[in-house]
Amino acid sequence: MDRLILWDIDGTLVRVGDIGADVFDRALERALGRRPPERVQMSGKTDPQIVGEYLAMLAVADPAAHVAGILVELEKELAAAEQEIRSGGRVLPGVVDVLKRLGEQDGVLQTVLTGNIAPNALLKLASFGLDALIDVTVGAFGSDHADRNALVPIALARVAEQRGREFAPAQVWVVGDSANDLACARAGDVRCLLVATGRYSFDELAPLGADAVLDDLSDTSAVAEILLT
Ligand SMILES: [Mg+2]
Description:
Elements: E1 3-7, E2 14-15, H1 19-32, H2 47-57, H3 67-80, H4 82-88, E3 90-91, H5 95-103, E4 108-112, H6 118-127, H7 151-163, E5 172-176, H8 179-187, E6 191-195, H9 202-205, E7 212-214, H10 220-228
Parallel strand pairs: 1-4, 1-5, 5-6, 6-7
Antiparallel strand pairs: 2-3
Residues 8, 10-12, 43-44, 176-178, 198 line the site of magnesium ion.
């Protein structure tokens, strides 16, 4: 059975703790000499989108000229914080078993669809050994496009180019933890499973109209049933 599973990272596979937001403060301070007065809401947004919101908050002139440089700082700051990620972060319930279970299934390809820039996505996964369970290199990342809704076609193209595999929309799932994950699945005409392990509760996610909603990924058989049916 052919399935392409596009995993969101933060709030879906792992939670890295406050460092995930703090690296933006550190990167902005390095690039601009000042930290933002408050934090933007980050769930389901891409890194360049978050940086853009901070530049607007800080009223920086010609913001587009600053984004690439700040993303370079963001990569450096997260790499420097790897130990903090390991100590303050965690893999979410059921994730390892689900990735292994789906990995044993013929025809299933698992990769990521994430707002993180690619090096930071890799670092977050590798910090917990999850990079060994997912075909990370054919995923779609915040470094590919600032608009998450553009990322499903990018993942499909990368999978076709690099793995020689084509998937019909009904064979593709986005798994995420926010309304933005659902929006990008809908924009890409693929299915969506939402899990309440990020910022949003089951009761907040349930009315959004995803194809499936779960409290978490701890029931391996239930998750496999949803994604493989
Ligand atoms: Mg997320």
